[in-house]
Amino acid sequence: MSVAEKSQKKSGGLGETVSVIVQALLLALVIRTLLFQPFSIPSGSMRPTLLEGDYLFVTKWSYGYSRYSLPFGPDIFSGRIWGSEPKRGDVVVFKFPPDPSVDYIKRVIGLPGDKIQMKNGQLFINGVGVPRVKTGQIDNPDITEMPQPIDVYRETLPNGISYDTLDLNPNSIGDNTREFDVPPGHYFMMGDNRDNSADSRFTVGYVPAENLVGRANLVFFSIGGKASPLEIWKWPSLMRVSRLFHFVN
After folding, report:
1. What are the pLDDT digits (tens) for 2-39?
2. Coil, strand, or helix at residue 83?
3. In whole angstroms, what is the distance from residue 245 CA to residue 172 CA?
4. What domain range includes position 65?
5. 62 is annotated as an active-site residue
6. Based on the number of CB atoms within 10 Å of its own CB, is 56 exposed (0-12), middle (13-18) or buried (19 or more)?
7. Which of 16, 27, 200, 222 has a CA between 20 and 30 Å from the CA of residue 174?
8. How many domains are contained in the chain?
9. Residues 45, 66, 69, 197: which is the catalytic one?
10. Which residues face 38 on adjacent strands?
11. The domain that contains 86 carries what CATH number?
């Protein structure tokens, strides 16, 4: 084989490698933009439903697509394409309205036109109290982040969606609020960890439909102790096996 042939062979092999890498990156971009996006839980605001150290898939097609469906949220169009309304009770990843570079995850409580209020720890939607039943206590700091047993209440929304909420403090600042009027094209979000959640009652405010990224769908990995999933040697003691491939409700 001549020097020229060897050079051509090396050049061809390098070109094929670059082509495969580019195709893989494009495929990953399409999947992340249109289908699924991985997301890690950064705080305890959605306990006990979601825990810090949970890694989940967000379905991007659930509510259609906006500029925030694309990496870095380029301002190339407004509104949503093929949009559909989130259901009350959906757990949603969205862009923080004051700073869209930050992702938040909360539960949809108020739809456009709703009136939302908290009275003595009970949620009211359009003047009607949401059923709230104490189901017991959780005495597991990995779930509650607290060293003592915490009361758990089961809420059932008007559309039948039920979920557990934590009551860390029976007299917290978020237990009694003004009445919030959700404007058109916006949503009212709340965390399930009601006394430890920066949500629409406080800093988040009303969330524009454009800011919705997708619906939280499936926990595919979970590890406690604030460990990184790359710390494989910690898996035997800290991996939450019972949460693997756990659907988000």
Report:
1. 544 444 444 556 777 777 776 666 655 555 555 678 99
2. coil
3. 34
4. 3-247
5. no
6. buried
7. 222
8. 1
9. 45
10. 57
11. 2.10.109.10
